[in-house]
Amino acid sequence: MARDLNPRCKKCRRAGEKLFLKGDRCSSPKCAMIKKAYAPGAHGKKMGRGLSEYGRQLAMKQRIKRIYGVLEKQFRKHFEDISGKEGVTGNLLMIRLETRLDNVVYRMGLASSRNAARQMVNHGIIKVNDKKLSIPSAQVKVGDVVRINETKKDNQYFKNIATAFKNKKDTPTWIAVDVVKFEGKILALPDVESIGVNADPQLVVEYYSR
Questions:
Q1: Which of 55, 75, 103, 106, CA to CA, is 20 to 30 A from 137?
Q2: What is the CATH number of the domain that holds 154?
Q3: What secondary structure letter does DSSP report for 67?
Q4: How many domains does the structure of the chain reveal?
Q5: 3-class secondary-structure state, position 72
Q6: DSSP assignment letter at 143
Q7: Residue 109 · residue 165 · CB < 8 Å
């Protein structure tokens, strides 16, 4: 499986904002956006000024890809899968990304970042409807139940996050989380207005429509 191994802090600096790619570290004084809040490279402080329309579209595509940890080929496939469907294409793209299994695990609070959630899925720690699913890009549907594999619950990692998980207050309303069973049920498709991602997906639509 292809992975993006580029430094995550540089992705935030390139986007010009925190993308929370390193979990708790992003909320600490060690965050690169506190020390170096400008684009990486020798001319980083001068970049981002007066972008063309194409530049704005490309920058937005890159930002959304980095937030969800998706490479270009897979991101393009997500776009092609929702193109032509009824609804606002940009909104459909965001819903598609939000309902990826790795993102759902992250939104439930079982991982501090989407990258950590992706590793959990890859390692067979997650079950969907009582079946082990190790594909991070798998799409969850309304009614699906996502939970920790019972054989993994005694893992030290879950013992460490148990308190934080039980006290989590910002779980999306479209996921009903059971903090005792370490599971969540998909109640509805996410509401684009409440996703909480600083992005304009319509620019991505314009980019691919060129």
A1: 55
A2: 3.10.290.10
A3: H
A4: 2
A5: helix
A6: T
A7: yes
